[in-house]
Write a structure and sequence with these properties.
250 residues; alpha+beta; Rossmann fold; OB fold (Dihydrolipoamide Acetyltransferase, E2P); 5-stranded antiparallel β-sheet; 14 strands; 24% helix
Length: 250
Amino acid sequence: RKVAKLLQVEHLLNRLPKQLSGGQKQRIALGRAISRNPQVFLMDEPLSNLDAKLRAETRSQIVKLQRQLGTTTIYVTHDQTEAMTMGDRIAVMKDGRIQQIAPPLEIYNQPANRFVAEFIGSPPMNFIPVQVKAPRIVSNSQFRLSLPEVWEPILHQYDGQSLTLGVRPEHMSISAPAPKNLVVTVDLVEALGNDTYLSVSIPEDSSPLQVRVPPDKIVRIGDEIWLSIDPEKIHLFNPHDGMVIPKSDS
């Protein structure tokens, strides 16, 4: 009864399984596990069969429950929203190997490699091939961007080499024509109400970029626009092994 009260399922105890909804079944399953008083919970994609509304509700219930019990919980998921909102620390895995372990915001803002950068974030990080010109210029045929001074020590080691620049959709914005900005063509407009996402293409590059713009910004498919990149928010990756290039040796 104590566990049922904790999970708010006291009124369901006399029902048959076929009379329970998906979310109710999930809470009952959690109750069975809790009643054994385990030292660790292992949850393997427990919300994968629920619809979006139930998934959000049950996700918040699991977080609240874990905080009340204080039991260590290992939660396996392919849903990055679940990982970012539920975890104190995230371990990102690929092919059975851990790529990075860190708190959610560190994973998002300081990815260890291109795989982590692309996996965490919706839409994912954009990637643009660039050439390095010391002390702190990165460029390609479409734009030329000057980076903050903190990049100088490391970029001297990559002078003349090709790297991959990574930038998240929210760190690009519509701007005026300028050598440091990128001219693109709008291929798709997704208006979500609170945000608008653009899928854009660069001339001579088949890889689309994703850009987040304010909802009141009117953009149409086929428009040619200029995008500025926030140099404070960029990431650089080694194109050979995908590892991030730190801003300094420290």
